[in-house]
Design brief:
Elements: E1 8-9, E2 12-13, E3 16-21, H1 31-42, E4 47-53, H2 57-62, E5 71-74, H3 77-91, H4 98-125, E6 131-136, H5 147-152, E7 157-162, H6 173-178, H7 196-202, E8 205-208, H8 211-216, E9 225-227, E10 250-255, H9 264-277, E11 280-285, H10 291-300, E12 307-311, H11 318-322, E13 327-330, H12 339-346, E14 350-354, H13 357-362, E15 369-371, H14 376-392, H15 394-411, H16 414-429
Parallel strand pairs: 3-4, 3-6, 4-5, 6-7, 7-8, 8-9, 10-11, 10-13, 11-12, 13-14, 14-15
Antiparallel strand pairs: 1-2
Helix pairs in contact: 1-16, 3-4, 9-14, 12-15, 14-15
Amino acid sequence: MPITHGKAVGGMRKLRVLVLAESANPEWTSVPLVGWNLANALSKVANVHVVTQIRNRDAFLRKGWIEGQDFTAIDNEKVVAPLHRIATRIRGGDNQGWTTVMAVMAFAYYSFEWQVWRRFRQQLIAHDFDLVHRVTPVSPTIQSLIASRLARIGVPFVVGPLNGGVPWPKGFRHRQHAEREFLSNIRRLYQLMPAYRSMRRSSSAIICGSTFTQDEIPDWARQKSVFIPENGVDGELFCLSRSSSTSSVLQGAFVGRLVPYKGADLLIRAAEPFLKDGVLKLHIIGDGPQGEALRQMVNSLGLEQSVLFHGWVPHSKIQERLIACDFLGFPSIREFGGGVVVEAMAVGVTPIVADYGGPADLVNDETGIRVPFGDEESLVRGFRSAIANAIQNPQLLNRLGSAARARVLRTLTWEAKAQQMLRIYHSVMSSDGDLPALGFPR
């Protein structure tokens, strides 16, 4: 149950935080799940009131949250619904054109914040809240219209994790076109959007969910930025651990949507000789528009007995599939966060990832294997070499997996991330405002 607004613990008043989580839903995945998990964890360490969009209301209620006391649901569907229809019409199909969707839906978020300001303006002016934290949307292309208003009334504004916009690698333009990601070529125009500068100038802290996003912060705002990976892990949902002994036939997993940029086909190509030799089995967990083509590919290569398609698996069941595997193969070439990488690490499964984007921030040489690449062929060769090394040295997976689990449990549970946020809150409210050094150095 969320902490009731205004309670004190041990005689010390908890910070009062208005959390803006337009996208936050415990029953969904991706950004909505990030929004929910972080807001929920924050409610354990501060007196939090969450403001979310009306579509999330029922899920909050099912979690036992009390409307009006623990959260407020903003109904801006008159703006959201038509814009969503426009975005759907021009994106080119399901699971495609996400940059286009974000560009269109940015205007819906402005209407959300406008209603937030109208609803909470008097309480904010009266300093009923110590600070405001915008948790979602995570895209740095979506600005905040109230950041400057909060600065004028002396209420600190924290934004983040911000994450997104990792450029498409040059050797993968055909996959970019398959994803209909045409607007990503002109993405930097978001810096001309209203409130781009004012949000960054008025923020007391800018939490960056990836090193790429932190590098995008302009020099005049860089000193108020801090890197904390976007994703975390639910320690109760991912509480088991992989066996410390590798399987006689190595078991590899791919988890994710079956879409071009995730690269499941590249992993199959890399693993092909080991699959044919019977020393490896590959588990494809997930579904998507590439599913049928991947099955045909496997059939044409004669790998039906070695590549197992599990289809869509509920998030609550992912742990059961992962702990039966020895490594996670994740050749995604444009991954912003990499939530599944964190989850695999949490259960002691060694990640083998493309050395690019969010996964490269999460994995180091002590906790996994990063594969450098320049094009598809070099990525396939790199993954093939990494898998061959794992087959020849299975104890490597035990060592890396154990270290990965320890690192995640120390720094990337939602509880740990809430404590990191709390340190930032206290820093921005102190006289010096120096942001703390946190658990993921560059």
